Amino acid sequence: MDKINLSGTIAVITIFISLFLSLFLITVKTAHKLSNRLFAFFLVLTVIDMSVNLGYSSDISLDARLFRSSVFFLQLPTFYLYVLSVCYSDFRLKPKHLVHIIPFLIANLILLPRFYTVDQASKISFLAKSSSMPEIQLNHIFIHIQIALYIIAAFMILKEAKKIYLENYAGASIESLNWLFQFTLALSGFYFIALLKNIFKFTEYPYISEWLKIGLFLFELLIISWYLYKALNNPTLFRNIDSKLKLVKNIIYEEKNSEPSAANENEYSEELLKLKKYMIDEKPFLNPSLTIQDVSDGIGIPVRDLSVLINHKLEQHFYDFVNTYRIEKAMDLLKDVTKNKLTILEILYDVGFNSKSSFNTAFKKHTGNTPTAYRKNL
């Protein structure tokens, strides 16, 4: 009884927080409305899925009960679309995305012959033997295959988005992408535990499944609370990238048939000198939201050529390239005895960073020391 009360209490708290976060995401003023709405829908689907395990189903028709269970097939597709919308600024929902509801439709179509279209007595008998019914077993297999495919797809999208970001942007959004990666990793852990729960449910140790269910409710509460904390503290958390941008390796691949001539090499050398002069004279790196497009506009070199120059010829991401200048500027300020009253926070903002963690990471990568340690050792 205590176990049931514990799981029910955790589930109710999680449902309340999820609905509160959904309301916040829908009503908050932001440029990322689609992303917020997709995640809000994901949370609502999660609430519906959780309600299946609460046991309050006496007033719900048998059809509605089983249909409610099939809603899970919409969760991962919604999360995948959410990841796409977060990563790419020009992402829009299109008719082609309806393909993601096919598993949900199939899961319900499978149940038509022996559940949805039969009489009440047959439905009761079906549910009583649900664990041994091939339709239910098949849907369980589909669910776990779907989880694996969508989680892998989400990680692939994030991996490519991060590469594109590093090659074309120099703001603080890399931390947002890292955080979304961590969130997806946490979801992966959650669904892995859910898989274990389902496995133990059909073994000689069903009590382990019950304890794992409580653990899942608690884990879900922690994940949702974590997201709520992030959302409330950073309502404009994500800055998307343009999906039309190409990875440099793809640009190089497209040009692999054209051998670089001496003239081209000379052109690269001239462009490199022009770029370095521009960075030193104009100091565009002081702009915390600097993009490769901004630099391209400033020196008159096409983005495509500039991207190849920095990311391929210099073998350095644009993100790291810009941060090198920022760190050099920060080092100058730390060495300047007339600036010794400036705090580390003031310095990082002065040189173009807008995040203490990203500044510390970049500074240690460049110098081997933290900014505070570097200043003390002078």
UniProtKB/TrEMBL annotation:
InterPro entries: Homeodomain-like_sf (IPR009057), HTH_AraC (IPR018060), HTH_AraC-typ_CS (IPR018062), Tscrpt_reg_AraC-type_HTH (IPR020449). The keyword Manganese does not apply. GO terms for molecular function: DNA-binding transcription factor activity; sequence-specific DNA binding. Residues 270-377 form the HTH araC/xylS-type domain. The chain crosses the membrane at residues 6-26, 38-58, 70-91, 98-116, 136-158, 179-199, 211-229. Keywords: DNA-binding, Membrane, Transcription, Transcription regulation, Transmembrane, Transmembrane helix. PANTHER family: ARAC-FAMILY TRANSCRIPTIONAL REGULATOR. This is AraC-type DNA-binding protein. It comes from Pseudarcicella hirudinis.
